[in-house]
Amino acid sequence: YLVGTYFLPKLIKKDGRGFPICDLIEIDNYYFTIAQMPGEEAKVIIETAKTRFLNKEKLTVPHLLALEIAMDPIDIWHFAYKHGIDLKAAKNAVAELVEDKALVHLTEAEHLSLFLNF
């Protein structure tokens, strides 16, 4: 019950994030926070995404994901659902951001637990 009441405010928020979905034991994690976007590469991608958004230009899926992570922690499932994006495309965006050194993808519970802050 304690866990349920703790996550209740997140469940009823209308921001498209809800409570985080992350198994952390059986499958790779896909929950991201701004702390996982260190370095200049991430700053450039986030600023580019902000500029494109403000200019009403089309955002790529990696740009949109970077912008969402910069606003507030989000998991890949809520991100994909919120924006009507195929889950495979969302996971490809993660891979692209990792390849561009703009996102650190922590897949294991003991690594991610340092970044969880509810």
Structure report:
The structure is a single chain. This protein is mainly alpha-helical and about 120 residues long. Helix content is about 55%, strand content about 5%. It is built from 6 helices and 2 strands; from the N terminus they run αβααβααα. It has a two-stranded antiparallel ribbon. Helix 2 (about 40-55) crosses helix 3 and helix 4 (about 75-85) packs across helix 5.
- Average pLDDT, all residues: 82
Strand share of the residues?
under 5%
Give me the strand/helix succession: HEHHEHHH
Lateral arrangement of strands in the main beta sheet = 1-2
Helix content: 40-55%
Low-confidence stretches: none
Q: Secondary-structure map with pairings?
A:
Layout: H1 2-12, E1 31-32, H2 39-54, H3 61-71, E2 74-75, H4 76-83, H5 87-99, H6 109-112
Antiparallel strand pairs: 1-2
